[in-house]
Design a protein that fits this description.
Blueprint (H helix, E strand, L loop, with lengths): L10 H9 L3 H11 L11 H45 L6 E6 L4 E5 L4 E6 L5 E7 L4
Antiparallel strand pairs: 1-2, 2-3, 3-4
Keywords: Membrane, Transmembrane, Transmembrane helix
């Protein structure tokens, strides 16, 4: 079974957080989007448009962060599954993960009594394993 790490852009993926538990975010966007209309009538339309533009930019910024976070967690989960499978093939039935350094694709994980520093390739294969007997 081959798992792809690259996600193809799709409108469903962009809207995924809304219908998978981020309903509160949608509510916040709707309330903040209507904020300029709560302003007194003395405020000009141009000023209201500036508010709308500012809030739209802020919303897109935070929503982009949600999408990036989701992609980070998905990639991490794929790497963890592959490491677990490879470690089980080496005879370690249980692996727990302590830290993930995405920039270097390194995991610090532990088997029953030993700790490991594992570096993975972009495809998810283990490139290097450093082993500590008895932990750090």
């Amino acid at each position: 079974m081959r798992i792809q790490l690259k996600m193809k852009p799709c409108w469903k993926q962009a809207l995924y957080p809304i219908w998978k538990g981020y309903w509160w975010w949608l509510l916040f966007v709707l309330i903040m989007g209507s904020f300029p209309y709560w302003l007194p009538m003395e405020v000009t339309t141009q000023e209201k448009n500036v508010w709308v533009l500012f809030l739209a930019t802020l919303t897109l910024f935070f929503y982009g962060g949600l999408i990036l976070d989701r992609q980070y967690r998905r990639t991490k989960r794929i790497y963890e599954r592959r490491i677990q499978r490879d470690m089980q093939a080496q005879g370690y039935p249980f692996v727990s993960f302590y830290r993930y350094q995405p920039r270097h694709r390194q995991f610090i994980c532990s088997t029953e009594a030993d700790d490991w520093l594992i570096k993975v390739s972009p495809t998810g294969k283990i490139e290097r394993q450093v082993h500590w007997k008895g932990g750090f």
